[in-house]
Amino acid sequence: MNYKYSNSDTDTDMNSLQPKTGIRPERPGISGLGGWLILIQISLWLALVFLISDVSQVNVIMDPARWEVGRGVDPQIYRETIRPLLWFGFISSTILLMIVIVNLILLYKRKRQFPRMMMVMYLMNVIISIVTWILIARNEIPREQHVLDATPAFQLIVRSILTCCIFIPYFLKSVRVKNTFVK
Questions:
Q1: Tally of CA atoms within 13 A in the half-sphere of 152 that contains its CB
Q2: What is the dihedral of CA 38, 98, 63, 136, to 10 degrees?
Q3: How many CB atoms lie within 10 A of CB 153?
Q4: What value, to the nearest 5°, has the Cα angle with vertex 172 and ends 170 and 177?
Q5: How many CB atoms lie within 10 A of CB 99?
Q6: pTM of the model
Q7: DSSP state of 6
Q8: How far apart are CA 148 and CA 145, in angstroms?
Q9: pLDDT tens-digit readout, 97-154
Q10: What's the pLDDT band for 75 if we cut at 50, 70, 90?
Q11: CA distance 158 to 129
């Protein structure tokens, strides 16, 4: 029994499955912007609103009089401790705002880069929250002038890590994500 297998049939079938235009072939299963992706969309739109609000109020937040007169903070503490922290917050909010806008565009165009960019955004949130916590915790401020508390920053780290633990595996394993973001 001498069987000769021809690769031509197999090659033809396999070549028909390969995308010619750079679009990934759809796998069997669900697709579209439903399911857990609804939660992702809501979180992106809320992040956009909150980040625009943060960035637009920078003049009010950075005003030294607000800290020195309004909260009784020593001008030296403001210059050495609070101002660098506020600048870091403004710069990180601006970067996150740009990432959120890019992610919304990639989401609604169903681009293949969207899941990767969402993972970048989640990891950026973790990094920013850790740096914020370090900036707050490293500064010694007298008890009577203590306006910076590291506890909310630490809670933000925990929330950011939990978000990563939930949604990064979702973006890596979900059939819906693989079927939706194919362009």
A1: 3
A2: 70
A3: 19
A4: 70
A5: 19
A6: 0.76
A7: -
A8: 9
A9: 999 999 999 999 999 999 999 999 999 999 999 999 998 888 766 555 556 777 888 9
A10: confident
A11: 9
Question: Three-state secondary structure along 46-65?
Answer: HHHHHHHHHHHCHHHHHCHH
CA atoms within 13 A on the CB side of 44: 23
Q: How many CB atoms lie within 10 A of CB 81?
A: 21
Which two tokens mark 179? 């079927």
Assign 104 to helix, strand or coil. Answer: helix
What distance in Å separates the CA atoms of residue 24 and residue 165, rounded to the nearest whole number? 26
Residue type present at position 165: C
pLDDT single digits (tens) 142-165: 555 556 777 888 999 999 999 999
16 to each of 12, 20, 23, how far by Cα in Å?
Answer: 6, 9, 13
Counting every residue, how long is the chain?
183
- Asked if 127 and 183 count as a contact pair (C-beta separation under 8 A), the reply is no
Q: What is the DSSP letter of 25?
A: P
